[in-house]
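F.,

This is the one I mentioned.
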C-alpha cells in the first residue's frame, strides 16, 4: 500500500498544532483519505515512485500506461522479451508507441517498470487536510450540538451529514485533472 498523500506531521502543522501528529485517529484517517483519492483517480498520483506494472496488450500501435505523469520507462518486456526502451516513443501522459510494429494483444503480455507520479501535489494535500480535519471534528457525524444557551454547528460534507471521509464536489472538481479515463 502506498504511503498517505500527507504525513501526520504535515497534517498537524496544517491544524496549527491543534491536532497532534501522534493522535491515534490521524494515521488511519490519512490512509483512508489517501486511498479514497487514489481510488477516485485510478492511480497512485503522488509522490514519484518506481512501479512494476503488468498490463494487457492493446494489440495496436499505442499502449496506455496507468499514469498521468510518466517520468521514465526503466524497462519494458513484451511476452517475456525485453524491448529496447530507446526504440519507444512516450509521452508524460503515459502513452507509449513502438517505432516498429504493434503491441501484443495478450492479457498480461506487457510488463513495464516505470518511474511516475507528481512531486508537487499541494492541491491534493490540501484536500486530504480538509477531509481528515472534517472527520476528526465530528467523528460521530453530528452536525450540531446544544447545551443551554451554547450551540455549536460543524461543517457539513453533504446535506445533513458531518464528519466521515467524504470527498466534496469541490474536491472531485480538483481531482478530475488527476483522474485517468475509465479503462486506461
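My design for it:
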Amino acid at each position: 500500500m502506498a504511503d498517505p498523500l500527507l504525513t501526520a506531521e504535515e497534517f498537524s502543522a496544517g491544524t496549527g498544532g491543534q491536532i497532534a501528529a501522534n493522535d491515534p485517529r490521524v494515521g488511519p484517517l490519512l490512509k483512508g483519505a489517501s486511498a479514497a483519492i487514489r481510488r477516485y483517480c485510478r492511480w497512485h498520483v503522488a509522490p514519484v515512485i518506481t512501479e512494476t506494472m503488468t498490463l494487457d496488450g492493446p494489440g495496436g500501435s499505442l499502449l496506455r500506461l496507468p499514469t498521468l505523469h510518466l517520468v521514465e520507462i526503466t524497462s519494458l518486456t513484451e511476452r517475456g522479451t525485453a524491448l529496447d526502451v530507446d526504440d519507444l516513443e512516450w509521452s508524460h501522459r503515459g502513452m507509449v508507441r513502438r517505432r516498429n510494429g504493434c503491441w501484443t494483444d495478450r492479457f498480461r503480455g506487457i510488463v513495464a517498470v516505470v518511474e511516475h507520479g507528481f512531486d508537487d501535489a499541494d492541491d491534493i494535500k490540501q484536500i486530504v487536510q480538509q477531509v481528515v480535519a472534517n472527520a476528526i471534528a465530528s467523528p460521530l457525524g453530528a452536525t450540531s450540538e446544544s447545551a443551554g444557551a451554547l450551540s455549536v454547528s460543524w461543517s457539513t460534507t453533504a446535506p445533513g451529514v458531518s464528519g466521515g471521509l467524504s470527498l466534496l464536489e469541490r474536491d472531485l472538481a480538483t481531482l478530475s485533472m488527476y483522474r485517468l479515463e475509465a479503462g486506461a
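Strands lie at 49-55, 62-64, 70-78, 81-83, 88-90, 95-98, 110-116, 144-147, 150-153.

Talk soon.
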